[in-house]
Write a structure and sequence with these properties.
Blueprint lengths: L1 E4 L6 H15 L5 E4 L6 H7 L4 E4 L23 H11 L2 E4 L2 H13 L4 E5 L13 H11 L6 E3 L2 H11 L7 E2 L20 E5 L8 H12 L7 E5 L5 H11 L5 E3 L8 H5 L4 E4 L1 H8 L5 E3 L8 E2 L21 E2 H9 L3 H15 L4 H14 L9 H19 L15
Parallel strand pairs: 1-2, 1-4, 2-3, 4-5, 5-6, 6-7, 8-9, 8-11, 9-10, 11-12
Antiparallel strand pairs: 13-14
């Protein structure tokens, strides 16, 4: 299997690649990760290299073409020989994990016959977003042209909304769990009386639950003296959160500790009373029996779908109109006032739900993708690629001067 990834930052996409590659390695199947951007977390790269071979787009440039360190590299000329070497070792199927991965995958499919390409919707707004820019429209056209059987969704709600947005029948598209390596030998070491809430993840605009919990801690601090909130992460929204902590005068209750390495995740959450989060982090926290509350992305109100065991199918990250919402505050009070037995019961229910998201289920589905995928008849002609290149340059210029940042912050949209 060949994955085309956007970067090797410490985020949900990279940790998913680590788990997937580890599972493939256990099956004796070689995996290649081709990265379109040279943003690399050394710890992620080190751990991932234990299970997969890592390449960068510039590895496929004709010599002596200079390398580029950002997404512009996908528009540079590529040499056929290293591509043939890649598919000879890892197979003729390429799985794209985002916009730039899809562009580069279709470029490879144009260069070498019989390559098939699939694309995964790893974030609800990766392809489905509002923008007036030509680059955005061309990308969305490219995605719409993908055969439905070549598209992978990670929950049914995304499949439905994409079908409506793109006016495409995605009935034949697979829906897989965004799998985790369920921890059978780990458990929480805290008790209900611990009073510690924890979140782990990049501090980005669409993860609005961090702000909601900070405000709730401020509201409840007098009623519950032991209540505190530890945040592990870094990112563009950190300054805003630090300012909020100062304004609310909760610096003694709320701490932002910075990013942690993936292998330290369980070490930092196991002594907690409650986890709040989204993505794969909440699956992993639930897998050790820690009561975990869903953080809905981009939602402006302090609402949630409830504890992880209360979600429907695989859908929990996205705001879904009409779905029953609960108040963060009420659930935190429920935990704070629960008996030890009641607290453990909630954790056990979250743990049972996490079993729906095993990495084995994901890999089983991914193994079917090469056989399910149709030939990519739209191999993105040169003129189309040139149009993408020029229009992307314009998007970058608009972003640099902050005239239009809609593409850069597309994941923050609430459609």
């Amino acid at each position: 299997m060949i994955f085309i990834a956007g970067s090797l930052e410490l985020n949900g996409g990279s940790t998913f690649l680590i788990r997937a590659s580890k599972a493939y390695a256990a099956l004796g199947k070689p995996v290649a990760i081709v990265v379109t951007n040279s943003i690399v977390n050394d710890n992620v790269r080190s751990e991932l290299s234990n299970y997969a071979d890592i390449y960068f787009v510039h590895d496929f440039f004709p010599k002596p073409l200079p390398s580029f360190k950002n997404q512009l590299s996908i528009f540079m000329p590529i040499a056929t020989k290293p591509i043939n070497n890649l598919i000879a070792k890892y197979g003729r199927h390429i799985h794209a994990m985002g916009i730039f991965g899809l562009i580069f995958s279709l470029k490879l499919a144009r260069a070498v016959d019989s390559i098939t390409v699939s694309v995964g919707v790893y974030h609800q707004h990766e392809f489905m977003f509002k923008s007036k820019r030509l680059f955005s429209k061309k990308i969305q056209t490219l995605f719409k042209r993908m055969p439905p059987s070549n598209v992978i969704f990670f929950n049914d709600f995304n499949k439905l909304t994409y079908a409506i947005f793109f006016n495409v029948d995605y009935h034949s598209a697979q829906t897989l769990p965004i799998g985790v390596d369920l921890q059978k030998n780990l458990s929480i070491t805290a008790s209900r009386t611990n009073g510690r809430i924890v979140s782990v993840g990049n501090l980005v605009g669409f993860k609005t639950y961090n702000e909601h919990i900070i405000r709730i801690v401020s509201e409840l601090k007098d009623s519950y003296p032991d209540l505190r909130y530890d945040i592990y992460g870094d990112g563009p929204n950190k300054e805003h959160l630090v300012h909020l902590i100062s304004i609310l005068n909760v610096a003694d209750r709320v701490k932002i500790h910075g990013a942690i390495t993936y292998d330290k995740f369980y070490e930092h959450i196991k002594e907690s009373m409650l986890f709040v989060g989204s993505g794969t982090a909440i699956i992993e926290s639930s897998s050790i029996g820690l009561p975990s509350i869903v953080g809905i992305e981009s939602i402006t109100t302090p609402d949630t779908y409830g504890f992880f065991n209360q979600i429907e199918d695989y859908s929990y990250n996205e705001y879904i109109k009409g779905r029953n919402l609960l108040k963060f505050r009420d659930l935190i009070v429920t935990i704070m006032t629960a008996s030890e037995a009641e607290w453990k019961s909630i954790g056990t229910k979250c743990q049972e739900k996490s079993k729906d998201f095993s990495i084995e289920k994901t890999i089983s589905g991914l193994n079917e993708v090469p056989n399910r995928s149709e030939s990519n008849s739209n191999k993105m002609g040169l003129l189309y690629e040139y149009t993408l290149f020029i229009s992307f340059i314009w998007v970058c210029i608009l972003d640099i001067f902050t005239f239009d940042t809609s593409f850069k912050f597309r994941r923050n949209q609430l459609l």
